[in-house]
Amino acid sequence: MARSEIMLQRTKRYKKMVLFPLIASIxxxxxxxxxxxxxxxxNYYSIxxxxxxxxxxYALDIxxxxxxxxxxxxxxxxxxxFALASTIGCFVIGFGLALLMYKNFRLQWFxxxxxxxxxxxxPIVIAYTAEMILYQKGPLNGILSSIVGRDMLIMWIxxxxxxxxxVVLMEVWNWAPFSFIIMMAGLASLPKEPVEAAxxxxxxxxxxxxxxxxxxxxxxxxLALVLRFLEAMAEFPKTWAIFQGGPGTATETIPVLIYLNxxxxxxxxxxxxxxxxxxxxxVVIILAAIKILQKENKRITQAQAS
Amino acid sequence: MTKTQKQNLDNVIRYTLLTIWLLIVLxxxxxxxxxxxxxxxxxxxxxxxxxxxEPTMSNYxxxxxxxMEHTETQYAQSVQKPFTALRNSTIISFISxxxxxxxxxFIAYGVSRYKxxxxxxxxxxxMLRMVPPIVLVGPLSLYYTTIGLIxxxxxxxxxxxxxxxxxxxxxxKSFIDEVPIELEQAAExxxxxxxxxxxxxxxxxxxxxxxxxxxxILILTWSxxxxxxxxxxxxxxxxxxxxxxxxxxxxGRVYGRQAALSVGITIPLIIVGITxxxxxxxxxxxxxxRK
Lengths: 306, 291
What we know:
Helix content of chain A: over 70%
Largest sheet of chain A: 2 strands, antiparallel
CATH architecture of the largest domain in chain B: Orthogonal Bundle
Order of helices and strands of chain A: HHEEHHHHHHHHHHH
Order of helices and strands of chain B: HHHHHHHHHHHHHH
Structural class of chain B: mainly alpha
Largest interface: A-B, 95 and 87 residues
CATH superfamily of the largest domain in chain B: MetI-like
Number of domains of chain B: 2
Number of helices of chain B: 14
Distance between the termini of chain A: 38 Å
Low-confidence stretches of chain A: none
Number of domains of chain A: 1
Shape of chain A: flat
Strand content of chain A: under 5%
CATH architecture of chain A: Orthogonal Bundle
Structural class of chain A: mainly alpha
Strand order of the largest sheet of chain A: 1-2
Helix content of chain B: 55-70%
Mean pLDDT of chain A: 89
Shape of chain B: globular
CATH topology of chain A: MetI-like fold
Number of strands of chain A: 2
Strand content of chain B: under 5%
Distance between the termini of chain B: 37 Å
Radius of gyration of chain A: 25 Å
Oligomer: heterodimer
CATH superfamily of chain A: MetI-like
């Protein structure tokens, strides 16, 4: 047998060996849940039903109910806004810190270790700690008061105009390290020659950054933004633990709204229909993100190989 | 301005900015540690008490020492089982991570050497991670109730296994890609079969990478909240879910106890994370960043 033929056979055999269990476990664990989700979106199920199998056929009524629900629309906008704001916040701080730190200096290791701690902290712990710090007569307002010199009693948690911003702050504290480590790695892998050449030619620091470093970093910047945005869309523990969607509906993001509909209003079918729409929306966003990542990943691989 | 003056100014700005962020990072961490040593009258005091004048170990004794307190405030001890939660968290995260990394490594080997998954399929695999879990946990809990997996360790292990698989595959693939193919060819000439080559040549070469992948996924699984919160009731409660149970009916949140539990949950993760800090960028970027 020719060598290439042996290779082909091996590939086939290996493919069977790993793909079968992979597909089987996805089907076994997630398959039924996906089917149930679709089933519940068309059949009305409440806790008063005998069981989910005894729910009543509603055709498209549940979907049309969800699609026209303004609370759902607002939650989508709120989630996108939250994800966008926290992604930008994380990136600006993370990249800023990386720029200050990527050149070797004496205490670099020390700052690096401290700066990665937030993303190693359990998110639900961050939520409860934030509540301890942020309540109206809590330490953060205490510190702000002593800086300003008069009582600053900002209602971080109970003011509906501030609440979502508070969640963004928590998210940024938690995940700025993510952008930080990725941008540190990016800056460390930049070739030194173009920068040095530009310095010799007398280019200003700003010009070097803007015209040489930034374009070279583009694929990694895209990676840091896209991955963070997708994770922020799914954020639940920090939003839920303190606010449960409140005050009012100020922090009702998509995950919170789906949770409330399922376990507070016991409106399983509505939640399933919402989930289905959100899932489709996320799949579209993710496919777009994947396309971008696939393109940029090629550049990253090329840059790292050279 | 001379060059040294400029450099000094640079340094002053750098250290000032870095130290400001350092304080922002450290303050919440300090606060939670400080609260864990505070007696209950200091938890909500105004002006805030930064470090209690009468530090106490009672929070730790209560949470981790199993000390029962029958004072005027009874914190409903019966529903709080931190040791059960600790045991559950340990079993769930270690087993699901082990399954995910070992299976992931075999897939990764296939992808690296035989392209059993095309590049597009590899990216589609990321869906398992990127679709927000909230959209499926509801139906999943019904499914689990029907087949009797609700509130069971097995159920949580299964779901964590499948949702961390993308990380496992991508991260181990990034390590396997770096193993020179000549090593395997040499083993092949000596008559080793595929299984032996993978387990006795490839895996030993990348063992530090495998360990890093394992610890990285362990961090993610250990801190996961939403799925555990919904799929567990009493028997399969994990530590992050347990934390929410320190909430009295009349006295509100039991800050000191929560702080003591939080410190216990978080310290192992921070230690593990700092140990694998060189691999964190690789992990979080699905192995796309390799340095």
